[in-house]
Amino acid sequence: MAVDAATSRPPATELLGARRAGEATLSRVAKSLFFGAALFYLCVPMVAVLIYSFSTRWTANVLPDGYTLEWWQQTLSNPRIQSAFSTSVMLATLTAIIDIAVVVPAAYWSRVRNPHIRPVVELAAAIPFALPYIVIAFGLMQFSGIAAPQYQGTFALLVAGHAAIAFPFVYWAVDGAMAAAGIERLSETAEACGASPFQIVRRIVIPNISPGLVTGGLLSFAASFGEFAMAQIIGRSLDTVPLWSAEMIRSYSDTAGSYNRLAVVTLLTFLLLFALSAVVVYWNRGQTVRLLPGAGAARTGDGR
Amino acid sequence: MATLSRPIVKLGLESEGGSASPTPIARMRGWLAAWLPAIPLLLLVATCLIAPVVVLVVQSFTSMGESGLTLDLWTRVLGQRVNQDAIETSLILAAGCATITLAIGGPLAWLISRMLQGRRAFWLGLLNVAANFGGIGLAFAYMATIGSVGMLTLVIQGLGIPFDAPRQGSMFALVVAYEYANIPLFVLLTIPAMAILRDDWWEAAQTSAATRWIFWRRIGAPILAPFLLAGWLLIFTWTLGVYGIAYGLAGQSGATAVHLITLQIGTALQSDVLLGPGRAAILAMVLLLFAATSLLLYRTMLRRALRWL
Amino acid sequence: MSGVSLVGVSKSYGSVKALDHVSIDVCPGELLALLGPSGCGKTTLLRCVAGLERPDKGNVEIGQRDMTLVPTRDRPIGMVFQSYALFPNLTVRKNISFPLEVRRRPRKEIDERVDELLDLVRLSEQAERYPKQISGGQAQRCALGRALAANPEVLLLDEPLSALDALVRGRLRDEIRRIQQRVGITAIYVTHDQSEAMAIADRVAVMNHGRVEQIARPDEIYDMPATQFAATFVGSRNAVELDVRNGRVAIPGAFDIPAPEGTGSRAIAFFRPEDVRVSGPATSNGREAVGMPARVELKVFLGSTTRLHLVGQNGAGPISLYSDLPSHSAREIDEGALVHVEIDPALVQAFPL
Predict the structure, then answer these.
(1) Percent of chain B, pLDDT > 90?
(2) Chain A neighbours among B 109-138 (CB < 8 Å)?
(3) Helix axes B117-132, A210-225, angle to 10 degrees
């Protein structure tokens, strides 16, 4: 019996082994192709924009007719583009600062004192998440027309609008960081050591949720920087980067080099996003940045 | 979690000496102590999110020159061919985009979630950039890539293959451009859910003589499906609401472009003097209804997804 | 019944040798415990038997059939994981029937077998619950039922108790043993807890740095550890480093034994606290006290026994050791008292340093 098994088995196992090895290489090839395609899809548009920003004329051949730095010089020295960038940066920075300032106290208080805050804020966070920005923008335009006509079309109203639609990013990041840091426990400990609420927030809470603050701040910055619908509807008199870009893209012809300048601006925006994203990923040590909203419990559940 | 349910609101009342009926002032103080730090956020939400939506709802039920609530605006706007068309096209586009996203993003999220730290960080960074790269910039990037004189178009033509770039206002162009942001977003959202599927389940299945196929059919798919469907719903909702990319791509070809709800809202606000704000309000309400429904379904899905965990 | 044979199994991860030429025979129907600290290779060895790891070298045989290259799903094994690894979307009943359904057994046979197993692991009342609705101990019993469902030839248990709290642990340990004996299945049980290994196993293999240090019956290992590592890892022991004089190792007055082979100038002697004989405060009953004089530094009441921390006073520098006495005989010994200490030389093991 044993001898029989010994003589009949090896070929079978070898065959199995070989087939499994074949499967492994096949799936590895398929995987590489898949990731290659994904990389191609993600990178080619960026490369195209990059080349566009350096080319003289690019309408007939595989490669541009010539290369130039002219568009970069023109764009960077163009006062209108400069002002659009500074407006957008200012807008996005204010949005991030306001969001952090209003979200951190609410999130902290909902964890250490009043748990009833949580469901209210979570429901509120679902609004800009599900409702298109264009609907919120239009509603805000109508509402401000009734409630505060003097603010219509102002920078201040746009900042408020952006803060409202970007706050969920900050909330999820900050709340997640608070959960990860076990802020309730830390806060109780600090209280037992005699720290005042202000001291607790400044010396215990803020340092321990810094990854969440950075992530949330940068995500809300990015959301505001690239936002177009609301800027177009309630900030029509302003000049942000997306509004300028929209004007260029609809200028119908490329004769004045407007597309090349648009390429430069798009690339600059892209580089900015890339830098922000690098910071976020670095701060989170390669962990994921976003979560399916409301799925937070899934991460803490032990799920046996 | 248990520590969260401390009813501190009551604590504020007890601090008044535990008297049976606290004075109104004391009650006010207790309420303030419980809610004060959240008030700035709640104010922001009330003025910039809730009030605008309420105004839109009310406006959709009022009509020019008439007092009282009426469905007049609804019937007039929804009776217009162009609006029906926009709603239908938007729904088809959103469902199509969400399905494609699921088909590609699902496997991608699974594979990335099983990568080693370094490679995963690379992909997450890349996807994060792409997910945030929306709006006009993305529309332009599309044109620079497979527009009529885009790089890829020129390369393909340069290889001697007859190739006409898809029209910028076409469905195809919109899908390709939307997916550029959708797939990364979907992957980033579902990767944490992928971590729920533990490796030792696969090992336990193997020791129970299960093949990879049986494991996915009996264990993997049932556990992940609600998460993936929740992701599908989110992408569906977002795609319905996309404005910037569509404006950049479709807006240019003017009347020949596809009709989308968001584009119609934009047009109504800019050019339609007579029925403008009213039409925009109704279309906004349509989006609101879809968003609310899908949010409800989303919550149900998530509850279902978490019931075993 | 089939045994398991591991022949010269080696496995490395990069430069780390997880298994270094390990050979073990597990007899049919036997429960063998693999005991060792974390990282000693015991889990890797178990996973090689399961086929979840492929050894770099060597063979794995189950019932005399070479299984080295056979994929996990074709091996006649059942496995219990430290984390239970129950499928969360299946009820207890469905978890247990999973291996049978995968093998496409007839419905009727499955139902009968599952009822029998539910009874065996005492989960009949929880059969329709989901894993998250049952306790840790119940979850692990369910996992045991699943592992046994398809009548495997070998049962593999990977630290099945370490996720449970102390009370449940002891009870479930005895239950696993009961079930293993009743089914009469060959089992390999990985643990880092020596008392658990002692209590459950027919034989214990002590592992360290990817090697088997000793493989023997629990009482043999406890009384006669074969290596210094086994001596330190199994049981709580006094370990005293001593000079070797004239080929002998001794604590003057307490014991005196020949030095082990290969000893240089120093040796380490092991003896158990309960083997340290203490004669109460000097000449208490008129008899001449024998042994090494020692002072009681600390007295710790542990319930049925009392542990004395002793410092020997034999002139050659202080020697610290523990002694465990039945509590009733330690009653008269106070802290600070002078006692005399003796150890039966047959119960002392010395190893070269």
Answers:
(1) 33
(2) 111, 117-118, 120-121, 124-130, 132-138
(3) 30
